[in-house]
């Protein structure tokens, strides 16, 4: 894939975050493989939009008659997410990902030669299923590999996806000829919308052109399939090299404690992703139609507006790789939600001003970019994310992606004069803004053993300060910092676990305990100095 080598280099620049230990090279290889896989996932999802008329012609149907291949793919995707969640907890991740990518390759190779619409739907649902597995598993494998340092890697994964969705239409353009529908790339993973937007291109593409370009159309599927096959070979190699690394990381993950309200948090995040991904896909799919109907733009202007949305989305995901190295996931989510609330408000009520429409679309696209990867990194700090939990996030996203665009399409059909898409964007944004503080509160409610650890720590600090009078004042500051830390920082639970482990390890050797606290303290100070946003974002005291 053209975007892939650059993508991995960009990834490599964040190497500073990973500790230099023997497994470090292997971990970077896993990240590189996952980025390559997600690039392929983005391409195979997005290639369907632009090539849709050709697929219809291939099975001898009208575009509007084969909309059910999207339904097939979405159902496959849901099934794959569920299956992936169960399988990841009981078999090797690299192996499962490699196998699912081989299945995708087989499906992509089959599609261009498929002359029967039922068979086409079956192939689509196989592809959907293996994508569901890849989506769930990629996130879990990244979490298992990097643990608390997952931030930049998670962003890089989802950035690769956006790059793939951007590259696919360039490949598929050969199948459509001309600059016929530059905006379709990114009718990313939708059901209904692609339908509407492709009907236009179906009408305009002459039969002669389609016959002439049939080979190019086959070629775009074969290229993506071959690329995925190469990535799956890389994953098979990783499987043979490093299955032990994962087993170690898995056992260490199991030692981590679940949050007090684990399932409530997972359920809220499920709903959060449903609204967020639903809104993202809906806006990306219908903004072209909106621009044509309500803003009365020319086709080229409308296409440009659509590209602005997805361009800002992809660019912001790229920037977030580096941002995640400095900002906490919670901070990134807070910034994104604020931006999406403001921009969606402007779009819902001031979109009749051209400037407001263009700026609002760009800001809205950028604000959507980091929420999904940051959400997964954020929840990982408070509780253990296993295959089943991760599959719930992916299922929530997939349901949002199926239901919200379909609902908007239906309502827009009923109420022609109301810009349903803009109100949907605003309402979804409002829902996410309400949900996140609730999740934050739940995640930070302390467990009994944490409270006990805090009091143990204070007792221990008192003992130590008695033995070292000179450090009395310092210890006072330490306690102050500790309290601020508990209130303000997003990693509190994780730190408590580390602290608890170090206390347990050295409970019989109090003198050796002090260096452990010493090594934690500078980190606390740094964090408190460097993250005013986090402190400001904390709930009122």
From TrEMBL:
The lineage of its organism: Eukaryota, Metazoa, Chordata, Craniata, Vertebrata. This is MFS4B protein. The chain crosses the membrane at residues 25-46, 66-88, 95-112, 118-144, 156-176, 218-240, 261-288, 333-351, 357-379, 391-411, 417-438. Residues 464-487, 504-541 are annotated as: Disordered. GO terms for cellular component: membrane. Pfam families: MFS_1 (PF07690). PANTHER family: SODIUM-DEPENDENT GLUCOSE TRANSPORTER 1 (PTHR23121). InterPro entries: MFS (IPR011701), MFS_trans_sf (IPR036259). It is found in: Membrane. Belongs to the major facilitator superfamily. The gene is Mfsd4b. Signal peptide: none annotated. Keywords: Membrane, Transmembrane, Transmembrane helix. It is a multi-pass membrane protein. One of its GO terms (molecular function) is transmembrane transporter activity. Its main location: membrane.
